[in-house]
Here is the input.
Amino acid sequence: MSARIPLVLLACGSFNPITNQHMRLFELARDHLHQTGQFQVVGGIVSPVSDGYGKQGLVLAKHRIAMARLALQSSDWVSVDDWESQQPDWTETVVTMRYHYGRILKQYQEGTGKDSGPTTNSHHLTSSSPRLKLLCGADFLDTFKVPGLWLDDHVEEVAGRFGLVCVSRGDLEPERAVHESETLSRHWRNIFLVREWVRNETSATEVRRALRRGLSVKYLLPDSVIKYIHQHNLYTGDSELKNKDVLLRPLTKQTEMPVKTLDD
Amino acid sequence: MEPQDLTKVVLLACGSFNPITNMHLRMFELARDYLEDTGQYIVVRGIISAVGDGYKKKGLIEACHRVDMARLATDTSDWIKVDAWESQQPDWVETAKVMRHHYKELMTAEQNNDYVDTAKKRRIEATKHAFEDPSSYHTRRDNGPQLKLLCGADVLESFGVPNLWKHEDIAEIVGRYGLVCITRNGCDAHKFIHQSEVLWKHRKNIHVVREWVTNEISATHVRRALCRGQTVRYLLPDPVVSYIREHGLYSAESEQKNADVVLAPLQRHTGPSSS
Here is the structure.
């Protein structure tokens, strides 16, 4: 029996705020990857984007981190990481992935060589070092097409070196986005498409809209997150106007100072 | 409008709740927001009434479990409650009868609260007597709570399924009480109302609530996922997911329950005797 490859799933995004649907992505992805027989998902990371991203309506990172922590309290395998949110400027996804991959690899290398005790997932002999894959929704694949948002080399690295796990939503067809991109098509073996049959279009955008209008969002996010939002009076008419006339940071940063690819 | 001028509403949801999901719970929240947004109503209570085992729907697990799960799910709600009366009846109970039962309870509670205001007490008594007469459809009561059936568009459209509903029951539900229908597709719901004489007649009593965030967490899908060992986390409240696991509910076997049995309403309405 060949050993399964250990895998960590990383989700980058605004998480503005985190919703049940975000957390469901992890659960669906894990099920799917386990069913392929090739992988053992050993961890999940939620990495909220930094304030430097400049997206309209983005509330302070400290709040988005706090809410994600509250939401994931009840999860025994997914956790929040604030490294990306702490960086002074917006961080390219590929840089965030390199950081987490380096960290995971180091942990693994420190762990083996000693007689380490059983880990939570060790009933499958994981002889190989863990991999890192980017977890996202189908709408994320479409962002690869937006001019100036991604450098080609970065798409190559995310899809080729790491890999993507993409959960479909609504009518979006991730197969089409893969098909229409040369880079993604080439790495189709590294891109796992997960079908979410339950149509659940709980988008953070809709949640913010409901909150602005004083409407209920109960059962769309954990109660603890709703409580936090009310306590700190997040998501008002004003908060949605933040960054209104600001250009999204990726569109300015990557032309000023593109991040080196690994080959340089 | 002053708070005392608002009409009090109690929302009643009847269904299998097999199992209860976040979508069921959302319906209550959406309905309350919608009604209170009109400025005419104040929603004071939500009631979940799980159908009895006598309904004989395929895959329907024991009522005691369905009620327990609904209780766990509404633990964190301060206005939605579970009522086990319908689930405890030995035979299937028509929805109109369930509504009558709950309406009676509401009126009794209201009466007991107002022992001081004798004028109001007289009005409530008069309403109760009128209520006993099924041929009268009083819909306006001075600040007495109104009971409305909360449902999805599928229930509304099920009014058209032959032998599933008695014509007079539909008339009573929309005439005497009222319907709050949550739907993704407002056009279809309005079209359905338009094409039905009885629904059209009582259209003022039918509130169609658009659900902008599509949330089709069907219990059928949830059961399918559970049978296949797939995750249902975040589709139902965590305590319900735990309960299902602890009790080993929902398997290929449980899905076969009542497989060869005719649904109770169809049995009753096509039977030799009719009411």
Remarks:
- Chain A is about 40% helix and 15% strand.
- Residues 120-126 of chain A have pLDDT under 50 and may be disordered.
- Chain A touches chain B at residues 20-21, 23-24, 27-28, 30-31, 74, 170, 197-203, 206-207, 210, 215-216, 218-220, 223 (CB under 8 Å).
- Residues 6 and 186 of chain A are 24 Å apart (CA to CA).
